[in-house]
Amino acid sequence: QVQLGESGGGLVQAGGSLRLSCAASGRTFSDYYMGWFRQAPGKEREFVALINRAGSSSWLADSVNGRFTISRDIAKHTVLLEMNSLKPEDTAVYYCAADNRINPYRDSDYREREYAYWGQGTQVTVFS
After folding, report:
1. Could you tell me which residues are beta bridge partners of residue 46?
2. Residue 69 pairs with which residues in a beta bridge?
3. In angstroms, what CA-CA distances link 69 with 16, 44, 113?
4. pLDDT given for residue 78 in this prediction
């Protein structure tokens, strides 16, 4: 069992930055791939970013590539999502997710159903 808790969301003007944090507890943190997803009102939850167990490789959705960065601090059991050049279309509830069976080279593993553990979400609102 893994418990996840996000923080760092808020209200920001377009072009601004936010840093989201996900704190993990429970099972061995380094066993898990960690991901960020987001869900805007009326839309399905979508993949944002993924990082491997060691924190040495990451994958980003095309919509955020070049603006967002995912990282992890294994000692602190946290995953960060640095979000820059924010746009109104980035407005959503952002969720942290974890699973130990993810294969980043398999398209299906970018879907929410592949992740066993989820946080409660944190709201990000970007206004123009």
Report:
1. 38
2. 82
3. 14, 22, 23
4. 97
Residues of the chain with pLDDT under 70: none
The total of other beta-carbon atoms located within 10 Å of residue 54's CB is 9
* Rounded Cα gap, residues 85 and 101, in angstroms: 32
C-alpha separations of 28 from 12, 24, 50, 120 in Å: 34, 9, 18, 20
Beta-sheet pairing, 117-118 with 68-73: unpaired
pLDDT digits over 48-72, tens only?
999 999 999 999 999 999 999 999 9
How many residues comprise the chain? 128
Say which DSSP state 41 is in. Answer: T
Confidence at residue 67, expressed as pLDDT on a 0 to 100 scale: 98
Question: In degrees rounded to 5, what are phi and psi of residue 37?
Answer: -125, 165
Nearest one of 45, 44, 8 to 23, comparing CA atoms: 8
Please state, in angstroms and rounded to a whole number, the distance separating the CA atoms of residues 77 and 65: 24
Q: How far apart are CA 7 and CA 36, in angstroms?
A: 12
- Give 66: exposed, middle or buried? Use CB within 10 Å, 0-12, 13-18, 19+: exposed
